[in-house]
Amino acid sequence: ALRYALATAATITVLGAIVYGQIERRINRQATLVLDVQTRDLADAFQSQLREHDRAFRSDWLDQQIRQRIAETPADLGLGIELLDARGASRLAGGSLGAGSPLFVAPDPGAEASLRAVDMGGKYAHLLMTRPVPGGFLRVAIDTRRFARNVEEVRRVFLLALPVVLVATGLLGWALARASLRPIHQINRTARRIGG
User: Fold this and answer.
1) Residue 140 CB neighbour total at 10 angstroms
2) Which of 65, 71, 106, 148 has the fewest Cβ atoms surrounding its Cβ within 10 A?
């Protein structure tokens, strides 16, 4: 009975670890997806403006887009947007990539995009995606605080729930094994009594 309960508890522990790992990976993919959507959308809109308007209009339009997107994005995402020229010098910036943001090396112009985690002085890292655009690079950063807190919450729930589930499973397994072995114990007692 004890072996059955221990095997069940071990199985539940392994399953819990696998599920936690999958949830953590999904949350991290979600952060990357949010960043990729923001970057791709803004880069596509910028390229569209490039074909349709002159440089002065594009600059004003992009500055307005940066301010608007940052204002519309939840504050805990710490959105930052920056347009760099071909040498990597900042032309326009706002949000977490605004004044005083650290300088990063621009990616190879041939690369579609680069993604890296960067320390911008907060408790949590920022994810930074850089995409080439005509005449330079577009960088978008988000704070991973929201996603890290989600992972921490899932971890807390697992750490609280797992011992309860293990004890309940162990007790239930012990009770089921004991109940299923009761007829065998009765047969053995009867056989000993008859056998004398």
Assistant:
1) 29
2) 71
